[in-house]
Amino acid sequence: MGKKGKEAARERREQRRREVTRLRALPYEPHQRWWDLLEPRAVAVVTGANRGMGFEAARQLALHGLHVVLTSRDAAKGQEAAGRILEEAPDGARVSVEWRQLDVADAASVEAFAAWALQTHGGIHVLVNNAGVNFNKGPDNSVDFAEQVIETNYYGMKRMTDAMIPLMKPSPCGARIVNVSSRLGRANGRRNRIGDASLRDKLLNDDCLSEQLIDEMIKRFLEQVRQGTWSSNQWPQMYTDYSVSKLAVNAYTRLVSRTLWDRPEGQKIYINCFCPGWVKTDMTGWEGNISAEEGADTGVWLALLPCEQGTHGKFFAERREISF
């Protein structure tokens, strides 16, 4: 892409950014606020929410009037984050937030959280799978922490999704699962895609896509990392372990959406994923080009979509559908 092409692309991004900012300022109409019709108050769980984009997603959902369960591994940081949301809420806002310990990479922690959510709230209405890690910044592309990245970003998301689906409360507008992903995980992206054309085709073909296919891809990648042969096997070139983890998140989102869509009205669960963009957070070394508030917007928008706009199994960025 030449200089003019890059400038045009930059201008298009800025135009879309301004449009999303405008949309974010528009209040929901009373008939669109399905969560206000629920008694007791709609419950939203946000994982990895003590800082960054997870914190912003929790804050925005709370300001919209949902009861938010803000989760984190660290008790002190999580409790401080929940307190900040309450303290900084505008006067008169119906803000309700509580903290709960959760480590999505620990099966026992997820199981204990699910038992608590059922006993305390009788279930939930919204799950935002935000918890994630990335150990590469700038030009780095180490896979030294690949197993931790995959365990948290993919298996952690999968673990939480599987544990929460049985707890999703019936609602006239359906429950919502929102998975934080990345354009870096696109199967057929122009610059960061996997080199195995056959695997790409299978991942993008609903008739071929399966949990076994996704897990076998992950196992093959991690095995090549252990053997030191991963770089010559055409995996994504940028932030390879993170990109593979998000490729798996995207594929699993599509897979689960197929199993949930046939549910009867009132018991539907809408699951989607989104790319927040390059966000100024600790994960990016504060090198991003948008704020955490902007980055969280599409995820919050998906969690709160009005009944008539319910969608499932899609990938979004800046409130628009993009390709997998």
From TrEMBL:
SUPFAM superfamilies: NAD(P)-binding Rossmann-fold domains (SSF51735). GO terms for molecular function: oxidoreductase activity. Its EC number is 1.1.1.-. It comes from the Eukaryota. The keyword Ligase does not apply. The keyword Chloroplast does not apply. Belongs to the short-chain dehydrogenases/reductases (SDR) family. This is Short-chain dehydrogenase/reductase.
